[in-house]
Amino acid sequence: MGVSGSGKTSVGLSLSKKLLIPFYDADDYHNVQNIEKMKKGLALNDLDRKPWLDLIALKIKEWNSEGDAFLACSALKKKYRLKLSKDSEVTFIFLDGDYDLIHRRLSKRKNHFFTKVMLKNQFKALERPTKFINISIDQSIESICSLIIEKIKK
Predict the structure, then answer these.
(1) Dihedral of the CA atoms 6, 114, 103, 18 (nearest 10)?
(2) Which of 43, 81, 103, 149 has most Cβ atoms within 10 angstroms of its Cβ?
(3) Which of 49-53, 62-66, 107-111 shows the lowest mean pLDDT across its residues?
(4) What's the pLDDT at 115?
(5) What is the residue-wise DSSP string for 57-98?
(6) Which domains does the chain have, with CATH numbers?
(7) Backbone dihedral angles phi then psi of residue 3, each to the nearest 5 degrees
């Protein structure tokens, strides 16, 4: 979990390959209206997110019944994380980075619906988790994955 540009997809794909566990990206489950809204630089509200969070929660339940999975999902607010983990076992990994680092990353991104303009809104909305695995993103993907693997195997 983390703001856009924190490396959720890159880290998730790498972990998936290393551990042979399926990877999913929550962005793939947004409806067309939400994607269009975000393309215009507009932040989603809780009403926009509700069907998306409901679907992701169902998918998590499904993936848990099949074994483990990695999911890249912003899950910025505590209530979103509670929704996603209500009926399922979930280990949240917070990919933590500062605004300037993530802004630089987003500046280099191509062909993604998320815009840099929305980054400030995500940082405002972010309710930093305190009881989850917290990983600083100011290091290589390889180092991040090694730290995550070490922590989830405990």
Answers:
(1) 20
(2) 81
(3) 107-111
(4) 60
(5) HHHHHHHHHHS--EEE----SHHHHHHHHTTS----EEEE--
(6) 8-146 (3.40.50.300)
(7) -70, 165
